[in-house]
What we know:
The chain is an alpha+beta fold. It has a 4-stranded antiparallel beta sheet. The protein has helices at residues 4-17, 39-47, 143-146, 164-171, 178-183, 193-203, 216-235; strands at residues 25-28, 51-58, 61-73, 80-91, 96-101, 111-116, 122-127, 133-137, 276-280, 283-287. It starts with a helix and ends in a 6-residue tail after the last strand. The structure holds zinc ion.
Amino acid sequence: MPELPEVETVRKGLADRLANFQIQRIEVCRDRAIASPGGVKEFTSNMSGAFIGEWYRRGKYLFSSLHRESSSLNPSEGHKAFIDGGWWGIHLRMTGYFQWHEQKTSPCRHTRVRLWNTTGKELRFVDIRSFGQMWWVPPNNLPETVITGLRNLGPEPFSKEFNPIYLEARLKGKKNTIKSALLDQSVVAGTGNIYADESLFQAGILPNKPSGELNKIELKKLCSSLISVLKVSIGQGGTTFSDFRDLEGLNGNYGGQSWVYRKGGQPCRRCGTPILRKRISGRSTHWCPRCQN
Ligand SMILES: [Zn+2]
């Protein structure tokens, strides 16, 4: 599943590829990809003709601002002015990714949404498991008015709101494992299985430790480990694991450097002890029994 570094990599790819992209035509190949009110009909009619603006990421959500040419002339400059066209929101979920096609090609059977610009270039959304979602948010609305999942997101790991004091207060008295706390998007936005395991290794904390029992030193280590592992992975373009691909069809390089994730049975790179793998809180979890306690 794409996590923060992968979604950030996709954001950068979309921002690079779609500068001045005007959606001339749009085709929704599977209705359930569209989650905003009014479904496919509202989505396509409001997205058609819009220009794609700046790209943003919040947790694992992506958004682009949209604008449209105003029908009235800008009197001072003598050319058309732009007006707010709302927002385009996207969540890749398990297996969603984008492809960029300069030339006409036939879509694969997992193609969910296709968007063409005025010169016939295509942005294609492909999603094998088909859990990915898209929304159109009307002008003068914040994305969270339509995309309700945004309302419950915790702080971004790179924000100043995410710090050991916040984490201590948020986890106080909690009995769930620290692994499941890190996967909870209302605790910290954007973390998933890979970076939870990796940051717990770097912080030397057992994944099944009750989250409310972490002391101040552990909380401090965990905050800085999570931030550093995410930064390293973003620098590598995300991970090689899962079906993740960036816009150019490449997957990232972080996987090759992972300490514990998908290293079950292999010797720990730090101490040589075999890495353990077990389901914790319903998710496959990897850790070193010697380096983490
Ligand atoms: Zn070890």
